[in-house]
Design a protein that fits this description.
Elements: H1 3-11, H2 16-28, H3 33-42, E1 49-50, H4 53-58, H5 66-69, E2 78-84, E3 87-95, H6 100-110, E4 119-124, E5 145-148, E6 160-162, E7 175-179, E8 182-184, E9 195-199, E10 218-222, H7 233-237, E11 247-251, H8 256-263, H9 268-271, E12 274-277, H10 285-292, E13 300-304, H11 313-321, E14 325-329
Helix pairs in contact: 1-2, 2-3, 8-10, 10-11
């Protein structure tokens, strides 16, 4: 395969003309995927279809043979796969046994149908490896979304996830979610990253170099498990002082007035438009309002109110005068 054809598609995956050039190449090389892909396009299907052969047959499509599908994910406990124009677009791998995700990933990345993968979800059983090492063996220029979290969504595992070696291999990553694992981000180099969700303990603070994440606008962090070394709200914000956000969600951020005060001393005081604090104690509403006044462009404040009897009317009224809508959930 001419790498340039894949590169052009990963740059503009919605451009069907670029796909047509790829189909011509497949036809010239007698690749059976061309019939599958062209049938999908000619049938005017939605961009994504399930991998089920029965579902494809019901739609009147040519069934892809073994050379198309290949034994790419037969070892996984559960697999979700969606196709786009003859190539895998979305894959979710759930694994209950050690080594399964690594094996399945290597099969997937070695197979031509996985060359343009855009969304990948890895959900190992607790205490099992997420298999990220396999992602560093092949550049994944098309990958836009990556989720890493335990098979049981409520589980918290002591397994470590080292993300630093990944940055050079997922150069176009837009959304990254890490949940339930101890994580090491190292120096974050993700020029296309727009949304970052970190819901697990850090093994050392991440570092965002200048222009390391110029597009990062939405951040979700669980401060309750972020770091055992956090002694103040200033410490909590330190790793992210070089990013410019429009939306910030901080879970388990008790002491809302102290947190907002620390935020008001950063560059995000100018850019932030939405602040979400799912857990908050509202210890001092007047102090909180004083800090909120510093946020010139803040439009929405969402708060989780822990006590049913807690009166938030003064906060709502005060924030309204600042042009900020307050949404509270008990």
């Amino acid at each position: 395969m001419d790498v340039k054809l894949y590169t052009r598609i990963t740059e503009q995956p919605a451009d069907l003309d670029r796909w047509a050039v790829l189909f011509d190449w497949l036809a010239e090389h007698d690749d059976p995927r061309v019939h599958f892909a062209r049938d999908m396009m000619n049938a005017a299907l939605a961009p994504l279809v399930p991998h089920s052969l029965a579902a494809l047959q019901l739609r009147g499509l040519s069934l892809p043979g073994p050379r198309v599908l290949g034994p790419i994910m037969s070892d996984a406990h559960h697999t979700l796969a969606l196709w786009r124009l003859g190539y895998l677009h979305t894959v979710q791998l759930d694994a209950m046994h050690a080594g399964v995700i690594e094996t399945s990933l290597r099969k997937l990345l070695a197979h031509p149908s996985g060359s343009l993968l855009e969304r990948l979800s890895l959900r190992p059983a607790p205490e099992m490896s997420a298999g990220l090492e396999a992602l560093t063996e092949v550049p994944m220029a098309g990958l836009r979304e990556l989720f890493v979290g335990p098979y049981n969504e409520r589980a918290v595992t002591s397994t470590s996830v080292d993300l630093e070696p990944l940055w050079d291999h997922v150069s176009r990553l837009v959304v990254l979610t890490v949940r339930g694992h101890r994580m090491r981000l190292g120096e974050v180099r993700a020029p296309y990253l727009e949304r970052l969700v970190l819901q697990g303990p850090f093994e050392g603070w991440p570092y965002f170099p200048e222009e390391g994440c110029p597009r990062l606008r939405e951040l979700v962090v669980d401060l309750g498990v972020a770091s055992e070394a956090m002694h103040s709200w200033s410490d909590a914000w330190l790793p992210f002082e070089r990013v410019t956000l429009t939306s910030l969600t901080l879970e388990n951020a008790y002491g809302a007035h102290g947190l907002v005060g620390a935020l008001s001393m950063t560059a995000n005081v100018q850019s932030l438009r939405k602040l979400v604090l799912p857990q908050s104690d509202l210890a001092d509403v007047d102090v909180l309002l004083g800090h909120l006044a510093a946020f010139e462009n803040l439009e929405v404040l969402k708060l989780g109110v822990p006590h049913p009897h807690l009166d938030v009317s003064s906060l709502v009224e005060g924030a309204s005068k600042l042009g900020i809508q307050v949404h509270s959930q008990r």
